[in-house]
Design brief:
By secondary structure, this protein is α+β, with helices and mostly antiparallel strands. The protein contains twelve helices and 17 strands.
């Protein structure tokens, strides 16, 4: 009789990451990469809330210096979302590979791996890229059970209102075949009432941008109720207008019309590019097609919670492959400086045009940066939210409709 091999198979790197304790992911990654590629240093860098720096993850946050998120080798990897190999000097026996940590389009940070220069061949870099993606998924999951990675994201303490808002968000980006979303909030560490939310399915994408009136904790509580009510209605499977109606009733029941939330609700048909919309307040919507910029004028309806049992109606517009859609809250389009001057329609359009070739994440951040530069301030006095969506559509549909001319690759 042949002997039965009872030895256990060697666990994959991904399974070992999954098995690691939430707070031990970095240590586990160091051990695995030392064995796999001979790495002698591994650093996990998390993007801070303002997307200004990449901060090392340690058990005692901020014991190592952050690096810039928009310059240097690590910053280039973060911006380009592609591996960057850093060669310290011509005689160094080691190179550092900087790898994006991204989960379905949501940029978390960078994994920096120092290894022998002989090990930085394309095949090894590809393996490291796959490893970084697996690690990113585990970091996102581990955030439910440990504060370590959330602590590493902050350069200073968040206000309580901001803590609530960041926990309410789905992320800062989402990518699928049909679209790529990038979003940004400022002031990142004191945000109160602005929020964005999305949910993707097999055939539809629902996107909302909400601006709760007021400031601080009052605005955060109001927005939390509005977003929770919208999610509850959406998950019940009802239409967009009825989602707005139910959220409106929830806010009026709580506040009696003394507080309300301006909200833009969008539902994209992934097959056709038709967008159903409900404009319940102040967020403004712009579309860039080719080199042109146009504001999509929707029928202005009442903000959620202003009056009892408000009825809402849907409108529709069409997205074409290659279009970019930008939603800005009142903190962007209505911002005013101490002298009463505003960012203005012209300045906003100029910023949109200047960021047309940037990826959605960077376009959203750059629009807010342009707003701060316009007012000569390092931090905004009011909340500002920007959501940027690049629409590609479904390639199989465009192929059926006449080839690749409109496949969104331009």
């Amino acid at each position: 009789m042949d002997a039965v091999n009872t030895s256990e198979p060697v666990p994959s790197a991904e399974s070992q990451l999954r098995a690691a304790a939430p707070h031990e992911l970095v240590a586990t990654a160091r051990r695995l990469l030392a064995d796999l590629v001979g790495a002698d240093a591994v650093t996990l860098l998390m993007a801070d809330y303002a997307l200004s720096v990449l901060q090392p993850v340690t058990h005692l946050p901020h014991t190592a210096a952050p690096v810039a998120a928009h310059e240097g080798p690590a910053g280039r990897a973060f911006l380009s979302q592609a591996p960057v190999v850093e060669v310290p000097d011509g005689s160094s026996p080691t190179h550092v590979v900087h790898l994006p940590l991204t989960v379905r389009g949501d940029r978390l940070g960078i994994l920096s791996v120092r290894l022998p220069s002989s090990a930085t061949d394309p095949a090894t870099v590809l393996r490291l890229t796959d490893f970084a993606t697996a690690l990113a998924h585990e970091v996102a999951t581990a955030g439910r059970d440990t504060d370590l990675y959330l602590q590493a994201r902050r350069t200073r303490r968040l206000t309580l209102a901001a803590e609530m808002q960041w926990q309410l968000l789905p992320g800062r980006g989402c990518a699928r075949e049909e679209y790529v979303i990038g979003a940004h909030l400022e002031p990142a560490y004191t945000i109160g009432g602005d929020n964005f939310d999305w949910s993707t399915g097999a055939d539809h994408l629902t996107l909302t941008v909400t601006d709760g009136m007021g400031q601080g904790i009052d605005a955060s509580l109001l927005t939390s109720l509005a977003v929770g009510a919208l999610r509850n209605a959406r998950r019940a499977g009802i239409g967009l207008a009825d989602q707005a109606c139910l959220a409106d009733q929830a806010l009026f029941a709580q506040y009696g019309g003394t507080s309300y939330a301006s909200t833009l609700l969008l539902r994209f048909d992934l097959e056709t590019g038709v967008v159903r919309a409900v404009d319940a307040g102040s967020p403004q919507l712009y579309r860039q097609r080719d080199e042109g910029v146009e504001q999509i004028e929707l029928e202005a309806q009442l903000p959620l919670g202003m009056f009892e049992e408000t009825q809402y109606e849907e409108q529709t517009f069409q997205m074409e492959p290659g279009d970019r859609l930008i939603v800005v809250s009142s903190g962007v389009h209505g911002a005013r400086d101490a002298d009463g001057g505003s960012f203005g329609e012209r300045a906003l359009r100029q910023t949109l045009s200047a960021t047309r070739r940037e990826p959605p994440h960077e376009a959203a951040r750059a629009i807010v940066a342009g707003l701060m530069e316009h007012f000569g301030s390092k931090e905004l006095a009011t909340d500002a939210a920007v959501v940027c969506l690049d629409w590609h559509g479904r390639h199989d549909r465009h192929d059926r409709d006449g080839g690749n001319e409109g496949n969104g690759t331009r």
